[in-house]
Amino acid sequence: MDLSSREFWALVHGVVLGGTYLLAFSGGLSGFYSLRSGLLTEAAITRGVRRLKVGTVAMAVLTWLTVIVGTWLVYPWYRAKTPSSPRSPLLASPSTKDWHEFAMEWKEHVGWLSPMLATAAAFIVVYYGADLTRSPLVRRIATGLFVGAFASAVVAGLLGALITKKAPIT
């Protein structure tokens, strides 16, 4: 199988970085859920918080890399103002012009929410550490930011997959 450099970077952006982030979400969510002081020993809390710190920071880095690669490596090829660019057939057809304008604009903007929310969640986890077990409100806020980061990544990823299905970068 031969991949052009554009296809390679699109694969890195969508499958390697974005896919890894989306798959790792369930581990992070279970890490937040398990931080309940009544359910764990002090040693288990220490291990769980350490794993959650590493996991949330790694996921924040992954989502930043995903968005940066998408914005500055993949997106310019899609958006090129040439007749051979992937967006040209979408804009040329009246049935897909509105789809492009809605989906791509949403993908571009919603995608940037994910690293911001993931970074905020990671900051809270690193800052509060084991205190997350004693402060349900702070844990819920961090979990909410974490889930929000995931939700925005899902929306951006789904729109990106649908756009790529209709107008692949080659």
Helix-strand layout with pairing:
Blueprint: H1 5-34, H2 42-79, H3 87-92, H4 94-128, H5 136-166
Helix pairs in contact: 1-2, 1-5, 2-4, 4-5
Write up this protein:
The protein is an all-alpha fold. It has one domain (5-166). 82% of the residues lie in helices and 0% in strands. The protein is built from five helices and no strands. The protein has helices spanning 5-34, 42-79, 87-92, 94-128, 136-166. Helix 1 runs antiparallel to helix 2, helix 2 (42-79) packs antiparallel against helix 4 (94-128) and helix 4 (94-128) packs antiparallel against helix 5 (136-166). The radius of gyration is 19 Å and the shape is elongated. The two termini are 14 Å apart. The mean pLDDT is 87.
* Quaternary organisation: single chain
Structural class: mainly alpha
State the helix count: 5
Strand tally is 0
* Shape, per Cα inertia axes: elongated
Backbone CA Rg = 19 Å
Share of helix, binned: over 70%
Which percent band covers the strand fraction?
under 5%
Which stretches of 5+ consecutive residues score pLDDT under 50? none
Number of domains: 1
* End-to-end C-alpha gap: 14 Å
Order of helices and strands: HHHHH
Largest beta-sheet characterization? none
Could you report the average pLDDT, rounded to the nearest whole number? Answer: 87
